[in-house]
Amino acid sequence: MKKLLLLIAGAILFMDAATADALPITNVALNKSVTLNGSFFSGGWGGGRVVNKQTVVDGVFLPRSNQWDRGPVWWDSHRVSGQNIQINLGKLYEISSFIVQVDDNDAYILEYWNTKTNAWKIAWNIPNYDWVGGRNLWGMQTRPNIYNNTARYTLTSAITTDKLRISGNMRSSDRFFAVSEVQAFGRAAQVPEPAAILLLGAGMAGLAALRKRI
Asked: What is the pLDDT of residues 101-129, one digit of tens each?
């Protein structure tokens, strides 16, 4: 009896896992909620403008070499540091790759919220792309490949999270930071269906009752 119940519960859990694996890989950051933490929009050049923070996850890349303070979300870290952009995904996702578009002569740090340790952990140390192939770049550049907006930075293993944040790397930058797009590719994390959990619980309860009768 016990073996039968466990086999049934296992079969349902297997079907749930198979369903999750069949889900397509998409940009799970698209149009999610964005929060700006710290002081933003200060120290821009003449003609710089403020944009809606949601442009960071609108799925649109700016033209290559677009000026850093005309279209992206930008900030000045010369006098104040610690600014970051947080993306709330709304639920858990398994994420396997990223694309970002940021200012050329800065390095950035992309982190994810580790739900097991309740702490931020680095997913991608985004390098400074000031010079590429002997060319001195300028303005907004897509990474990991400035020439291909669809090329992704692939993680060595998928991460499971419900929040992301991006900040500037103070050690490798001019401290004028700008972010125009963050894309995270993955699918909804596998969570056991309530039916499977209830079945397993009912099976264990039934087994306990059977033992009492015996």
From this structure: 999 999 999 999 999 999 999 999 999 99
